Structures are given as structure tokens and as C-alpha cells.
Amino acid sequence: MVKQERAARTRQALIRAAAEVFAEEGFALASLSMISRRAGVSNGALHFHFESKKALADVVQMEAAAAVTRMTDRAETADGALQVLVDATHGLMSRLADDNIVRAGFELCGDPARGDGVDLRRQWQHWIENILGRAEQEGLLADGVSPDSAAPAIVAATVGFEVLGFRDPEWLSEQKIIRFWELLLPRLAGGEA
Amino acid sequence: MVKQERAARTRQALIRAAAEVFAEEGFALASLSMISRRAGVSNGALHFHFESKKALADVVQMEAAAAVTRMTDRAETADGALQVLVDATHGLMSRLADDNIVRAGFELCGDPARGDGVDLRRQWQHWIENILGRAEQEGLLADGVSPDSAAPAIVAATVGFEVLGFRDPEWLSEQKIIRFWELLLPRLAGGEA
């Protein structure tokens, strides 16, 4: 039992270390020995848990996807689909700023060396499209605004904040997202929201 | 003279090939032999023109920056700063879709293996901030909208289109940008634009 706990802790340390190394170096330059060194475990211990760099990237992205889903699930307890949307964009930015696994999970989506894996940006896009559909059903969208017309701008802007935030964390600040919604929300909700 | 022309043509073929290889493989996995093979020249010819992969990436990004500046200069001949802004976003997307040097130049900005180089996204951000300043001076912005409040959303959205467009060219289509401006312009310009 104690042994199992230790193994679980080592596995988690490896995932965390991998996320940091992927975010800093990119997938191509990240090496298994960098990752095991960062986690403070032997190469042998790494290979016991993960067979390859790809396997580690897969797990980082799956854990990032799960963290984003937990965040959107929590956001969905708010009243009204537009409030849910605003809360979730704040939630995503704060996780990108604070959680290396979420940050690396997204960054790997744009890494040409990485190939496939969970596409977190697409998962986020689908979530935005769904919540805007709900906003429309709830009668919250302004005249002439539809989920189809609004989703691309919101998806693109949040992906832009994500990408720019890797180089300059200021882009992930609460202030930036507040301003974004001050600009867009009156147009989305017809000025009454 | 003929020799000089041939050298200039070889150099340009190498820059074009480098842009393609950088965009497909990322900076870390791109190799000089991939690039010379793609350009149809010998390794020796490559080394005659460029001393390293970094030197090639520097030139790709400088040429991309020059192409973006030519595009914004042309856009600036339009009447009114908001029309200039709209035209330039269309111009950027069509260049990202059609010009491998511009595409690679931007993609290298987000590549963790690439380190420094011309930051095209920052150049674009400065241009957006300037043109919104001009729009404000021309009295074109709606009440309560300032360059500071509008620029981040426009910069982030266009960077988002750029990044999403690498995986799915649909994001760079004219239709996507038209919709973006249909959503945002009435808010930016107070509904009269």
C-alpha cells in the first residue's frame, strides 16, 4: 500500500516535470533524461511508468483536458449561459497562468513536432459553441447575433490570449479578460447584460 | 552578372525552402540538409549563403516582417483608420494562407526551440495600437471605446486566427474575418460604420 502510494507520487512528479520541460523546450527538444532529472527520479523509474516521450505527452494532455472539463463544469453552475461563458474564460486564463499541466497541454497542440494527441483547443471550441447555443435558447443573444457568428471571435481571441501568454503572462491577467468582455459583451447581449 | 543573378535566385530558393521546412517540422527538427534538398541545391551551396539554421530563420522572419509592412502600407491608403484596420486584417490572413514565408515567420514566433528573432506578433500588435490611436483621433471610435480597451481583443483574435489556421486553413478564410468584423465593428464604431 505504501509502495503503491509512492509509485503514484512518482508518476505524478514525472507528469508535472514533463509538463514543465515540454512548455520550456517544446516537444522536439524535451528529453526523457531532462524529465527524470527534473522529477528527481532515475531514468529506470521513468521507464517503469512511461514507455516514451509520446506517452508522457499523451498523459499531460489528457490531464490538461480533464482539468479544463472540471473548470467548465464548475463554471456551468452559474446563472445564465453568458455568465457561464465569462466565468469559464476567466477560469481558463487563470489555469493557463498557474497550472503547468494545462499550459503545456495547450502548448503541445500548436507544436509541429508533436503530431496528434488530445486537441485542447478544439475541445475548448466545442465547449464555446455549445454554451453559445444555450445562450441563444435562453434568449440572451442580441438581435442578429448567433452562436455561429459569435463563436469564432471568442475562440480565436481566447486562443490568442493563450498563445501570447506563453511569452508574456500579462496576456493571461484578469484585467485583460475583463476588458475583452467589456468590449464584446454589450454587442453579444444587446447592451443589457 | 549572370552569376550574381543565379546566386540571388539560389538564395531566394533556400529562404523559401527553409520557410516550408520550418512551418512543417518546427525549428528544432528542421535540418540544413532537409532545406538544401527541398531547394534542390547542394549542402555546400547552402553554407555559401547561410552559416546556420538560425541565420536562415532570421532571414525568413525579416522577409516576413517586410511583407507584413508592405501589406499594412498598402492598407493605409484606404479612407479612414477603421477601414485601414479591416483591410489589414484581411491582408494578413490572406498572406498567412498563401505566403509560406509569412506563415513560417509567424509560426517561428511561438516556437519554444527558436529563442529570439523578429517578433512578428509584437510588430502586428504595435501596428494595431497605432491604427486604433489614429481612429480615435479621427473621431471614429464609439463612446467608451479607446485604443487601450479595443487593441488587446483585436490582437488576440487575429493571433488566434493565425495559430488555428496552421492546423485548419478554414480559420484564415475571408468568411471568418468578415464575420469577426460583423460582430466587432458595430461595437467599435458605435453602430454607424
Automatic annotation (TrEMBL), chains A, B:
DNA-binding region, residue range(s): 31-50
Keywords noted in UniProt: DNA-binding, Plasmid, Transcription, Transcription regulation
Name under which the protein is recorded: TetR/AcrR family transcriptional regulator
Segments forming domain HTH tetR-type: 8-68
Xref: Pfam families: TetR_N
